[in-house]
Amino acid sequence: MAIKASKKAHGGFLFISGSTHRRIPLFRYKRACEIFLKTLEAYRRKYDLRVHAYALLPEHYHLLLWFPPQQRLVDFLRDFKSLTGKRIVEWLQQEELNDLLARLEVKREPRRTKDARHCVLQYDSYVKTLLGSRALRQKLNYIHANPVCEELAGTPEAYAYSSARAYAGKGLSLVKLDRLELPYD
After folding, report:
1. pLDDT of residue 3
2. For the segment 1-50, what is each residue's pLDDT rounded down to a tens digit?
């Protein structure tokens, strides 16, 4: 069942997709990808979750995670997206990438002084609970094939911002991966 992240507890294997604000292709920038992945690694440790696969495409991302049932998914998504956004905005300000910053500006007036002035990742996420090795294999293959389908690389392992490289033994990941070894149905 596909859902938007809610306050209900979600545990187990999850497929999560999200996009950048206004589908701005931020992940065409190496630094934005590094920030996303390093922040994901920090939250992997904080929330004791397992990252099985990921792909960062220019304006969206896919994650295959095992999420601990005792944790709240909504808290993880809120905190992860918030810190990722703050770090990307800081980088854009340092590099004076003002055109991108302007496109990420929130159009409404902030109600509080601490409210964000920029939105980097969309608030909503697509979250699907995965049951069984067949569903896990399908999403793992989908995540790794996505950059090829989008014509960003010739093969899954040729794409730098996907876990396919690590699965193929052709590089390290900025995020500790827990490789899935799935039986065939």
Report:
1. 44
2. 444 544 454 789 999 999 999 999 999 999 999 999 999 999 999 999 99
| Rounded Cα gap, residues 68 and 8, in angstroms | 13
Task: Specify the pLDDT at position 159.
Answer: 94
Q: Which domains does the chain have, with CATH numbers?
A: 2-132 (3.30.70.1290)
pLDDT tens for 36-69 read 999 999 999 999 999 999 999 999 999 999 999 8
- Quote the pLDDT of residue 105: 87
Q: How many whole angstroms separate alpha carbon 116 and alpha carbon 74?
A: 18
Assign 3-class secondary structure to the chain: CEEECCCCCCCEEEEEEEEEHHHCCHHHCHHHHHHHHHHHHHHHHHHCCEEEEEEEECCEEEEEEEECCCCCHHHHHHHHHHHHHHHHHHHHHHCCCHHHHHHHECCCCCCCCCCCCECCECCCCEEEECCCHHHHHHHHHHHHHHHHHCCCCCCHHHCCCECHHHHCCCCCCCCCECCCCCCCC
Beta bridge partners, 60, equal 19, 57
Name 37's Cβ contacts closer than 8 Å, sequence gap at least 6. 54, 56, 161, 173, 174, 175
Q: What pLDDT is stored for residue 1 in this prediction?
A: 40
